[in-house]
Amino acid sequence: MENILEVKNLNIDLITEKGNKKLIDNVSFNVGKKQSYGIVGESGCGKSITALAVMQLLSFPLKTSGGEINFHSEKESVNILSLKKNEIRKIRGKEISMIFQEPMTALDPIFTIERQIIEALKFHTDLNKKDMSDMALQMLKKVGIPRAEEILKEYPHQLSGGMLQRIMIAIALICKPKLLIADEPTTALDVTIQAQILDLMNELKTSFDTSIIMITHDLGVIAETCEKVAVFYAGQIVEETDVVTLFHNTAHPYTSGLLKAVTSLGDKSKNLFTIPGMVPAGGHMPKGCRFEERCNKKMKICKDKSPELIEIADGHKCRCWLYAESGDN
Amino acid sequence: MKNIIEILKGIINIIKQLLKDPIGRIGFIGVFIIVLLSIFAPKIAPYDITEMFTKSKLVSPNGEFIFGTDNFGRDVFSRIIYGAKVSLQVGIISVGISATFGYIFGIVAGYFEGVVDSIIMRFMDVLFAFPSILLALFIVSVLGPSLGNTMIAIGIVNTPVFTRTVRASVISVKSMEYITSAKSIGLKPINIILKHITPNILAPFTVQATLALSGAILTEASLSFLGLGIQPPDPSWGSMLSESRKYMERAPWLAIAPAVFIICTILSFNILGDSLRDVLDPKLKL
């Protein structure tokens, strides 16, 4: 499969007065054309800043300190990190666009929905106002908004969260981008609306031929939408594989912990499973494996040496000494 | 042309909403009357402001002289009406000066932060450290007392307040997700500032402007009271109040008339500012 996005050895630093702290450490992954790629992990593991880096949207005190992000559009292939500001602006919204976590705050409260949808069109195309309004209307219908004509003239605070997230999707897809980054698109919504939004995204993905990077902490969302998954822990990828393998042939102890922590209905007997301990804070990373302290399968080597991300089966990568051939017990 | 009509429609809409609120109505009508007084001053004033009725000095209010006459026998009512013009002029122009500079400095400091922010804000802190009347006094005494210089001085004195208000609002608006969202669809910083940040900081900005307007009128009155503002024989409420001091016991109406007008004007502007804020808040607009 051809790739649309190749992230190679990406490093992101947090600039502090006492020196730089590395938040993202040598992260590499590829997103294929028309693929849904999931990034899953706890809060603070660096999944959102990775997404922002892809759009070159990191602002002080965050900074990319190394690596490449290669984006292959139909016309050309570019390294996003080496683009100038006016060059990246032509990609944002047109080739790559983004959906945010909080639909309530991601829309400007003082403009009508119509104005916000056509804003991207105004910037990236030379259509006249009539055509842009028509496109906005059609787009709203596509994302399943009832009485779209009226909604166009309304303000964000008059609509519900689910509606606003649909509108966010409409804004993100209006220029037919090749890659859509969804940063926890369903976290702020209630469960029934979540399912609707995920269905909508799956549907639009096929009709628009868009690749999706789905960032979430919810393994249910991953199961529902993604083909390939990377599990992030403390700024590193600890496991990367296709979605079926992840759920049925889990390799990394952290991933199995996450899977066990998923709650299910009707299971009243036991307490909820939690992974003990906390994610190590950025800049204070242990010398050995970053998950060592919380791991239930730790060995002697884990404390002293950090494991590499190695391929343990075809297309299945894992960062753990359990699978390293060179790992002596 | 279309844009102008749209803007006018917007303004009419805002005024309509202002009039719905009983308190807003009071403020709006108060300001409206003062504006009318200053525009039609020559038509309304019964006498010339410099005309001296030597036979009737310090006459108490009566049918002929509504607010009485001063120590030169000049009609106090006419001078109050003309004074409204001076006060309003000083208020609007000096607030215009400070609002413009405050907006520019505040946007630049708040949006770009870093070194530019530090330089601008430290400079504003220095200006802010002086009591406003002292700083205005200093500027007027350097430039020389005149109406224009008074307005410049008051404009400079008020700039730090605007800069701070704008900067603080910009910083809070800038961290909203819709700004990141605007960046993510490819807008340039200038578009983000003009289209997303400016309209969203308009509410605190407008309130600050009306507050500063009343402050400016007060500062002008103080400067004139100290003899450094409007020069005689031009009337200003402040200088009239200042002159009335000597005749406080014999002719209290000389002090009461300008004082009441100063109070009413400032009150009207403050009330207007308060209800403007409510009207401009999109969340209260349903």
Automatic annotation (TrEMBL), chain A:
Give the matching SMART domains: AAA
Q: Which GO terms describe its molecular function?
A: ATP binding
Any idea where the ABC transporter domain is?
A: 7-259
Gene3D superfamilies, alphabetized: P-loop containing nucleotide triphosphate hydrolases
User: Which first-to-last residue range defines the signal peptide?
Assistant: none
Task: Extract the InterPro entries matched here.
Answer: AAA+_ATPase (IPR003593), ABC_Ni/Peptide_Import (IPR050388), ABC_transporter-like_ATP-bd (IPR003439), ABC_transporter-like_CS (IPR017871), Oligopep_ABC_C (IPR013563), P-loop_NTPase (IPR027417)
Enumerate the subcellular locations listed in this protein's record, separating them with semicolons: Cell membrane
Predominant location of this chain? membrane
Similarity comment: family membership: Belongs to the ABC transporter superfamily.
Q: What is this protein called?
A: Peptide/nickel transport system ATP-binding protein
Q: Give the source species.
A: Sedimentibacter acidaminivorans
From TrEMBL, chain B:
Q: Where in the cell is it found?
A: Cell membrane
Q: Which Pfam families match?
A: BPD_transp_1, OppC_N
Q: Does the keyword Disulfide bond apply?
A: no
Q: Which PROSITE patterns match?
A: ABC_TM1 (PS50928)
Membrane topology term: Multi-pass membrane protein
Reading the lineage from the top rank, the first entry is Bacteria
Swiss-Prot/TrEMBL keywords: Cell membrane, Membrane, Transmembrane, Transmembrane helix, Transport
The family database entries (SUPFAM superfamilies) matched by this protein are listed as: MetI-like
User: According to its UniProt record, where is this protein mainly located?
Assistant: membrane
TM regions (residue ranges):
26-45, 88-112, 124-143, 251-272
**Record domain ABC transmembrane type-1: where:** 84-273
Concerning its family, UniProt says: Belongs to the binding-protein-dependent transport system permease family.
> What is the protein name for this chain?
Peptide/nickel transport system permease protein
In its UniProt entry, the species of origin is given as: Sedimentibacter acidaminivorans
